[in-house]
Amino acid sequence: MPSHLALIPDGNRRWSRGHSLSLYKGYAFGIKKFMDFGMWAKSFGVKTITVWALSTENVKKRSRLELGVLYGLYIKSAKDPKILARLAKNHARVRIIGNLQMLPAKLKEALRYMERATQAYSDFTINILVGYGGKEDILYAFRNAQCRAEAAKGVDEEFLAKHIRTASIPDVDLIIRTSGEMRLSGFLPWQSNYSELYFAKKHWPEFEKHDLEMALRTFAQRERRFGR
């Protein structure tokens, strides 16, 4: 069983169009599915999950209309009493990671609210990457003033691992990407060095518990050699 499971939930827009649904309804369904996914993963024994909720490229390249829909849903979800109660019931801690300076103030405040509301829990960790990009994550380390000062002493793996935005995220055992997309797109380049990859053909809103179980069974059958 992977200790750390990561997710790239692709296909919300394509699923919405295929079902004649608005973007709002499609993304809302995707958020609900992620909450289910987290609890399924916990029930299987996973300790940490990380989800890519919004990339730096999404923020820069998607329309204002689509971003407005996403921002509104994220704000609503972050303060939703039902979602917070479900997290509390499962002692699940949420951590928000990314370049939050890219985001509207109301969204940042809502995400931090969810983080504070769950900070006491430790049974299960949910890392949500918002305004995140793999290259930007590494560049962040070198642009940090403290980091530049320490760089004079020499740059090695330990140095970079300590200064990237995702420094608190452990190496990933298994990465699942949905909707038939077979690439990482810069997802956690530092932590995915020896991750196993699983590509599901289903669009994210169609992903079910038995699909996760299949991914975990596939992971269990693989031999991980870590370069040996």
Our Rg estimate from Cα atoms comes to: 18 Å
Described by strand count, sense and barrel closure, the largest sheet is: 6 strands, parallel
Detail the poorly predicted runs.
none
- Helix count, DSSP H or I runs of 4 or more residues: 10
- In helices, the fraction of residues equals 40-55%
Number of domains: 1
- The overall pLDDT average reads 93
Strand % is 15-25%
What is the assigned CATH homologous superfamily?
A: Decaprenyl diphosphate synthase-like
- Label the CATH architecture: 3-Layer(aba) Sandwich
> Could you say what the CATH topology is called?
Undecaprenyl pyrophosphate synthetase
| Spatial order of the strands forming the largest sheet | 3-4-2-1-5-6
What does the model show?
This protein is 48% helix and 16% strand. By secondary structure, it is α/β, with parallel strands linked by helices. The protein has one domain: Decaprenyl diphosphate synthase-like (Undecaprenyl pyrophosphate synthetase, 3-Layer(aba) Sandwich). Helix 1 packs across helix 2, helix 2 crosses helix 4 and helix 4 packs parallel to helix 6. The mean pLDDT is 93.
List the helices and strands and how they pair.
Blueprint: E1 4-8, H1 12-18, H2 23-44, E2 48-55, H3 56-61, H4 64-78, H5 81-89, E3 92-97, H6 105-118, E4 124-132, H7 134-143, H8 145-151, H9 157-163, E5 174-177, E6 196-199, H10 209-221
Parallel strand pairs: 1-2, 1-5, 2-4, 3-4, 5-6
